[in-house]
Amino acid sequence: MAIKSLINGNSIDVASAQDRGLQYGDGLFETIAIENEFLLCWDEHIERLQLGCGRLKIPIPSEEKLIEEAQSLTSHIERGVIKIIVTRGQGGRGYALPLNVKTTRLISLYPWPEYSFENPGNGIKVRLCSYRYGHNPTLAGIKHLNRLEQVMARSEWTDTTIAEGIVLDNEENVIEGTMSNIFYIKDNTLHTPELSACGINGIIRQKVIALAAELSLEVRIDKISLKRLMDADEAFMCNSIIGIWPIILLGEKLLEVGEKTTRIKILLQKYNFISELS
Q1: CA distance 249 to 235
Q2: Given this structure, which CATH class describes domain 120-270?
Q3: Are 4-111 and 120-270 the same fold in CATH?
Q4: pTM for this structure?
Q5: What is residue 52's three-state secondary structure?
Q6: Which of 8, 40, 105, 230 is most deeply packed, by most CB within 10 A?
Q7: Which of 52, 137, 40, 44 is nearest to 80 (CA)?
Q8: Is the four-CA dihedral 43, 133, 117, 206 of positive or negative sign?
Q9: Residues paired with residue 239 on neighbouring β-strands, in sequence order
Q10: What is the pLDDT of residues 96-118, one digit of tens each?
Q11: Catalytic choice (31, 74, 87, 178)
Q12: Contact of 240 with 274, CB cutoff 8 Å
């Protein structure tokens, strides 16, 4: 539950029933980590939000208003989460775009999440999901509000010792986790799925790819079969809140927390891309 919310700058947490974000999922969101009042990777999150607004033809909200409103919620917050939602605003029935669009900005502060499994930074158990993502290149990469695919995939397990589920597409390519991106390391090469047809181009995914050269790792972004993933030396999940979670059990395959995964995590923390405590 949110600690506090602002809607269009006002301290309320009740949106209109006519908002198109509620009616049609017509909007986008970003989830940003707070550490010692600082919004980690703010510029990158806003850049992706702006990209998504352009993709969906939603007027881009003022970045000045967004940062002002977000920072008003982070005072004295040592560790927390800011979620920004931007919708096309209110409209009548029907899918046609309103003639006069007035976007809705919803910014909420949440406590840092607690997980039922112990010490995820020391390694997690991951399962393989039965649900398959469909292809939609227009929506691929951005964080639009239509998350039913992730909801369906996440609904497949209740075992609290399993941290994540890996989702494939309808061509049996590995895509991502239900809430995170996936990487694996084989020899000295860092592999991550190609996401032009579906999946989220995560901020930490982008950072890991950009920092690979600094760690003398080659990067391959391509279609990844389950067989290739199962042949990994190391593997990990990542996003802006969890940081890096090494995988120690992938289906029934045992893995160790690898030295390269650990170096990637340390470098991300060094540049303040992820929380020092993640």
Answers
A1: 10
A2: alpha beta
A3: no
A4: 0.96
A5: helix
A6: 40
A7: 40
A8: negative
A9: 243
A10: 999 889 999 999 999 999 887 77
A11: 31
A12: yes
Rounded Cα distance between 141 and 98, Å, is 25
Which residue among the candidates 104, 143, 234, 260 is catalytic per the annotation? 143
| Amino acid letter, residue 178 | T
Report, as an integer, the average pLDDT of 228-236. Answer: 97
Regarding the domain delimited by 4-111, which CATH topology (the fold level of the hierarchy) does it fall under?
Answer: D-amino Acid Aminotransferase; Chain A, domain 1 (3.30.470)
Domain boundaries, the chain: 4-111, 120-270
- Is 176 annotated in the active site? yes
The C-alpha angle 147, 194, 51, rounded to 5 degrees, equals: 55
**Token output for 72:** 């008003």
Cα dihedral sign for 22, 25, 28, 30?
A: positive
Express each pLDDT in 204-223 by its tens digit: 999 999 999 999 999 999 99
pLDDT (mean) for 164-184: 98
Query: Could you tell me if 71 and 107 are in contact, meaning their C-beta atoms sit under 8 angstroms apart?
Result: no
Residue recorded with tokens 């909007």 = 27
Q: Which two tokens stand for residue 88?
A: 């096309």
